[in-house]
Specification:
Two copies of one chain form a homodimer. Chain A is of the alpha+beta class. In chain A, 28% of the residues lie in helices and 30% in strands. In chain A, helix 1 crosses helix 12 and helix 2 packs antiparallel against helix 6. At the A-B interface, strand 1, strand 2, helix 2, strand 3 and strand 4 of A face strand 1, strand 2, helix 2, strand 3 and strand 4 of B.
């Protein structure tokens, strides 16, 4: 494409509202245009990236045997009422009524719609399994949209849904889709991690679920992974064990010590001259299940943190929340000095598995300005409950193999999930089984954020000059700039442009009337993999082009005969 | 695709709500699935057709130098307020508020959005002309959606917008896009007509506009065209002249005749034994322009009809509507017997140009149960106003060349339009001109209904057995059915399937356990161009396949060696 005939404008200023690199760079490089808060138009160069990502995803889904369809953007409310999500989804679902006063919404997700299509089409086990997918616009009415495409309101997703007669079949297709996702992210050239995630209350206890995380410093999620064993999980799901256990096993008496004004683990341990791992942290939560409520006291090694998801899952409740001051009072628990002893009213007590029942710890004394030292669980409780509740952290060891884990930050670009019969059951779907009896089919769902992938690519790879696109999804492959004055030279440059496009490269030809510095800044900002410069003086003197690798910054002089080969090499 | 692994279900019953063939056949052939009134999911086979149409359109737009982008489905209300269309578009625009109480709508069209993008990107004449397009979902909240994809609420459109410094440039790009549209419809294999349309109050008087109409009996629009000269226009715009003028020029006196109870042209002429062309039809309209209103008396040859668009354009008003009875009374006009004489109050009188001022006609006498014969305009009016107001009809002659015109019915699948400065002016867009002065750029817009094209293809070509797809957009090219019992034969059929796909054909392999009749019915309903049948007995006896051309119904026996060639020939 000749830039003189293009539709492209770059910007020097970083818009104040743009907080993360992908948002800043996409606006500055003229790839997107803000329509409203969290709603972006994709300008021609930006849209080429989106379409390339779509195409890679489409090819890998097709290869995995999935069938593409297109569901409606606007879906009727009655489907959501049938599944019970019309009210639950309230928050982010953009609902409205049409002229005929019917409830409608813009789909934030399509489990209901696909289940409706499925039940009207499939009647027999002979037609299963089947996996259907679409690439379509979705909308989530975030109250505070931010981070550009990363957490926009309108976005493009690939969502797939599989249907099965049994768990074995679901497992097989799940694994196939897992591989298809790996193929997608491999082709995109991403550094990514497929991490075990928490199924929450979406699936049953044997439901598998994985997140695909693109590694980036600006990622919102924490990933625990082990380079040696390949173990990877998001921090909510990760199960590891403590590495350094410098616990104190020397026999000692329970003793009350004054710790005036020392209400944090750090302050108390500092004051007592002990490592934090020789203290116990006490947290009180209220668990809520329907109309019911109860409190739980959670005890962790002093330098560990609670994983709230693990606690919630262990309790099997809808929500958990830190207990209010008045609740603490009810139990006679003294804020800052809470401990497992002298509790006024019966309370559920859970010890984290990392606490050794034989070791001695400092705990709160249940009394303002006092702690107890020499606390041993085994002495105080005949049958204490030990549960894995701690948040995994860097330096922990894997459960199997005891290898150290690391922590990275990631951007969730895909999520695959075994839904089980959640939707088919709620919507009364049955299929005739092999045995002539009707059966409720199982489902899997497989999401991949197309526009999020575009932003994640930039978060993972950019520098202070601009974007560094993965080769497979760069809007074009080659930025060909001429610095020309004479008409004769321009004609020569036109010939080179033709030669490059004839060789099959996607080329942006910067034929604008502008200086070298201006053009190079634009080229770096846009971040195409290869820059080829044809300067009038250089070319006339030596017949050489300057070829620059955007990623490494390597510059080489190449003559016309070797130009195509050199570009191929850099794009390989 | 093996049907045993597909997601496809056909239906025998024609849904009661489906009134036209495309709607009936798409539902019966399992191509679409109704989500809500006027909102359809595209099932895998149906979506393949949509994607093929999109791809043809995309290729032709790219070839014409247009740049693809993607605008948002949800657009902010303030843009529409800026152009002044927020209230005007009220009817079909689905408006709502988001959580932050901002006005939003689902785009029914994107002139405002593209103009906003343009003004933030382009500053100089050097960057023009440019044509941008998108293929995207749109929504129009029709109160009575019907006819399936033909007049649905959610639909896919290609909409393009061009920007120019002057009319000459707009004309050139308009012509280029006109050609691109012809290329699209040629490739689709459509019988279509590019017809002149009425610019209405969208453009200025020199604005060109054309509709692309697919010829089909079920079309909603009437097209006037001349096979000899190539003239074509929709009936609202068409300018023709009457062919047979058997007017009465014999000198005669104005004479009142009793025509008791004969209040229609047909009855009066019958009663008087004269052809209707020797009478004059009188119509009274109220014209409304802002707060102003006035009446107009329109006179046409008795067997002609009024073209309301022509009348409205001639008057240059917002609306016209037949005058109410009380208005008629005010002017002393007697319903059923209205004529141009003896009007109580001054009124604008317009004669259609087809009326010969020297001919004698029968007209209403302005008196219950009476008409006048021998009425001659020249005798009664010194300066009568003659305007082209009649609706063109079959048998008329072209203005230039006097060749007879025909009438066809058409489905509007595309509409191209010179918008002029309507939006750029309203939204305050300026661009720096060659002379250093700012200037308001001109726009063109170019719509093409992707999903409507799919329905139109079926309306144009189907029979009582099902759809007959144009080759370029059939979901697959070949329907390969085996009627097999033995495992050995199945393996042979698998080989043939592989041979056909290896040859590059898109093949549906009907490997379902079902009889020949069942499979052939499905094949005819789905309407792929070529059906290849491999029957176990036939194949074993003679090694022959049956190859059927869906369009002509021609059946041929072909041996394996000639199979690929034969299919190629049928698809050519």
């Amino acid at each position: 494409m000749r830039l003189s005939q293009g539709f492209w404008q770059t910007y020097k200023e970083t818009p104040a509202e743009a907080e993360i690199p992908s948002h800043q760079l996409m606006l500055r490089a003229g790839l997107i245009h803000k329509s409203a808060a969290g709603i972006y138009n994709y300008l021609p160069l930006g849209y080429r990236v989106v379409r390339k990502v779509e195409q890679i995803v489409r090819e890998e889904m097709d290869k995995a045997g999935c069938l593409e369809l297109l569901m409606t953007v606007v879906t009727p409310g009655d489907l959501w009422q049938e599944s019970g999500r019309w009210d639950v989804m309230g928050g982010e679902m953009l609902k409205f009524k049409d002229k005929a006063d019917r409830d409608l919404c813009i789909s934030p997700t399509n489990e209901e719609a696909i289940t409706d299509i499925f039940r009207k089409t499939i009647k027999s086990y002979k037609q299963l399994p089947v996996t259907l997918y679409q690439i379509n616009t979705k909308f989530r009415d975030e109250i505070r949209p931010r981070f550009g495409l990363m957490r926009g309101r309108e976005f493009t997703m690939k969502d797939a849904y599989s249907f099965h007669m049994d768990k074995a079949c679901l497992d097989k297709v799940y694994d196939d889709l897992f591989k298809a996702y790996c193929n997608v992210f491999d082709r995109l050239g991403f550094e990514y991690s497929a991490v075990e995630a928490d199924a929450g209350n979406m699936g049953s206890s044997d439901s598998k679920t994985h997140e695909f995380q693109v590694i980036a410093n600006t990622g919102e999620d924490e990933i625990i992974y082990c380079p040696e064993t390949g173990y990877a999980a998001n921090s909510e799901k990760a199960q590891t064990k403590r590495a350094n256990v410098d616990f104190d096993f020397n026999d000692q008496e329970l003793k009350e010590v004054e710790t005036k004004g020392k209400s944090t683990i750090a302050d108390v341990c500092d004051f007592l001259g002990k490592p934090q791992s020789q203290s116990i942290k006490s947290l009180v939560y209220t668990a809520i299940q329907g109309e019911e409520e109860f409190e739980v006291l959670v005890l962790l090694v002093g330098d560990d943190e609670l994983n709230e998801v693990k606690l919630k899952n262990h309790l099997g409740v809808d929500h958990i929340t830190p207990a209010t001051d008045s609740k603490l009072l009810e139990y006679g628990l003294v804020k800052g000095y809470i401990g497992p002893l002298d509790i006024k009213k019966e309370i559920m007590i859970l010890f984290d598995e990392a606490i050794d029942p034989k070791a001695y710890y400092t705990v709160g004394a249940q009394k303002e300005d006092y702690h107890l030292t020499g606390y041993q669980v085994a002495k105080e409780f005949e049958e204490a409950t030990f549960v894995d509740l701690r948040l995994a952290k860097e330096g922990d060891l894997t459960i199997e193999g005891s290898k150290p884990v690391l922590v990275k930050r990631g951007i969730e670009v895909g999520h695959i999930f075994q839904l089980g019969d959640k939707y088919t059951k709620a919507m009364g779907v049955t299929v005739l089984g092999n045995d002539g009896k009707t059966q409720t089919p199982l489902m899997g769902c497989y999401g991949l954020g197309i526009t999020r992938v575009v932003a994640a690519a930039i978060e993972q790879c950019h520098d202070d000059k601009g974007i560094i696109w993965p080769k497979e999804i760069a809007p074009y492959q080659v930025y060909f700039a001429t610095i020309a004055k004479s008409e004769e030279f321009k004609a020569q440059a036109d010939d080179v442009y033709k030669k490059l496009t004839d060789a099959g490269f996607e080329v942006i030809y910067d034929d604008r009337k502008a200086g070298a510095g201006f053009k190079f800044k634009d080229a770096d900002l846009l971040g195409l993999p290869v820059r080829v410069v044809m300067g009038e003086r250089d070319f006339k003197e030596s017949g050489e082009f300057e070829v620059v690798d955007r990623k490494t910054g390597d510059k080489q002089k190449v003559k016309i005969d070797g130009l195509v080969e050199k570009i191929k090499e850099l794009l390989a």
